[in-house]
UniProtKB/TrEMBL annotation:
<keyword id="KW-0809">Transit peptide</keyword>
<dbReference type="InterPro" id="IPR036052">
    <property type="entry name" value="TrpB-like_PALP_sf"/>
</dbReference>
<dbReference type="Pfam" id="PF00291">
    <property type="entry name" value="PALP"/>
</dbReference>
<keyword id="KW-0028">Amino-acid biosynthesis</keyword>
<dbReference type="GO" id="GO:0016765">
    <property type="term" value="F:transferase activity, transferring alkyl or aryl (other than methyl) groups"/>
</dbReference>
<dbReference type="InterPro" id="IPR001216">
    <property type="entry name" value="P-phosphate_BS"/>
</dbReference>
<protein>
    <submittedName>
        <fullName>Cysteine synthase A</fullName>
    </submittedName>
</protein>
<dbReference type="GO" id="GO:0006535">
    <property type="term" value="P:cysteine biosynthetic process from serine"/>
</dbReference>
<comment type="pathway">
    <text>Amino-acid biosynthesis.</text>
</comment>
<keyword id="KW-0808">Transferase</keyword>
<feature type="domain" description="Tryptophan synthase beta chain-like PALP">
    <location>
        <begin position="12"/>
        <end position="308"/>
    </location>
</feature>
<keyword id="KW-0663">Pyridoxal phosphate</keyword>
<dbReference type="InterPro" id="IPR050214">
    <property type="entry name" value="Cys_Synth/Cystath_Beta-Synth"/>
</dbReference>
<dbReference type="InterPro" id="IPR001926">
    <property type="entry name" value="TrpB-like_PALP"/>
</dbReference>
Length: 335
């Protein structure tokens, strides 16, 4: 039996996450759909990777020293990752977060010892947007560094240097496609760049929720949003520094309802409790798998990101009253 090697320090637990073959999505796509289990990171999300690389980069550049503080604006998961990394390295954390994100994320950040600042959700152009608020707080706090996950390319380096080589090794170089949704752009761009370095023929696809502008940008060259989504942490209206030069070959737009269908099936059929971003990613992977099958026969392999645990959304995604308030289907077992 293969055994994982022992880790010399707790931060070595970030990354090297398992890859699992998803039975239902594979059958739907007519090819192999693999999920990268990012909920297995210490902070239970893919954002632990960006957090570690961003903090290490700030240290390497001499911007973050003993007794320092890391400040970030986030939908929650990056903040959780930063709080854990900062704790392990002896730093303080200030997290700015829109007040419409899940209660579980807020409670987790407080439990980790982060100072949590909640602001109303607003458009990026508004100076009170959570990103701009976090930048100002960093400027006003002595010894602080602003993580700037959206435009700090240490974020995508985490996936160029970590996620992509892991996928390539785990699938022994047999990868045909990769897709995921975009929040900062770091995961899609970085993993795409890393995989293309191994094999230019690997197809990289954007999976965009409704309410985001990138699907139309990559399809038609215009940043234009349509509809809305309740998915947390994904959906982008601009080309961030992490997205610049992303090798995106095709794009899909996925509704919350379709994402919810996969969230329900993965829990009911395969025992995986995931968030809506993971459901949207899986729906995109199925769409990419079908497209690759049409273009090149069967036997294809597509990888996507299982972003975080569904336990982070018990008061929202797994709550019947909340789902009804958002006019979303209620899982059978919650009725």
């Amino acid at each position: 039996m293969n055994q994982l090697p022992p880790r010399e320090k707790t931060l070595d637990l970030i990354g090297n996450t398992p890859l699992v073959l998803l039975k239902g999505p594979s059958e739907a796509a007519g090819c192999e759909i693999w999920g990268k289990c990012e909920f297995a990171n210490p902070g239970a999300s893919v954002k632990d990777r960006a957090a570690l690389w961003i903090v290490n980069d700030a240290e390497a550049r001499g911007e973050l020293g003993p007794g320092g503080t890391v400040v970030e604006g986030t939908a929650g998961n990056t903040g959780i990752g930063i709080a854990l990394v900062a704790n392990a390295k002896g730093y303080k954390t200030i997290i700015v977060m829109p007040d419409n994100q899940s209660k579980e994320k807020m409670d987790t950040l407080r439990a980790l010892g982060a100072e949590l600042v909640l602001v109303p959700p607003t458009k990026f152009a508004d100076p009170n947007h959570f990103v701009h608020t976090s930048r100002r707080l960093a400027e006003e706090t002595e010894g602080a560094v602003w993580a700037n996950q959206f435009d700090n390319v240490a974020n995508r380096r985490a996936h160029i240097e970590g996620t992509a080589p892991e996928i390539w090794e785990q699938l022994e170089g047999r990868v045909d496609g990769f897709t995921c949704a975009v929040g900062t752009g770091g995961t899609l761009a970085g993993t795409g760049m890393g995989l293309k370095a191994f094999d230019e023929k690997i197809q990289i696809a954007l999976t965009d929720p409704h309410g985001a502008a990138l699907y139309n940008y990559y399809a038609n060259g215009e940043l234009k949003a349509e509809g809305s989504s309740v998915a947390e942490g994904i959906g982008q209206g601009r080309i961030t520094a992490n997205l610049e030069g992303a090798p995106i070959d095709t794009q899909f737009r996925i509704s919350d309802e379709e994402g919810m269908e996969w969230v329900a099936r993965l829990l009911r059929e395969e025992g995986l409790c995931l968030g809506l971003s993971s459901g949207i990613n899986v729906a995109g992977a199925v769409a990419l798998g079908k497209e690759l099958g049409q273009n090149g026969g069967g036997g294809k392999r597509v990888v996507t990101i299982l972003c975080d645990t569904g336990f982070r959304y018990l008061s929202s995604l797994y709550n019947a009253e909340w789902l009804q308030s958002k006019k979303l289907p209620v899982f059978d077992w919650l009725r």
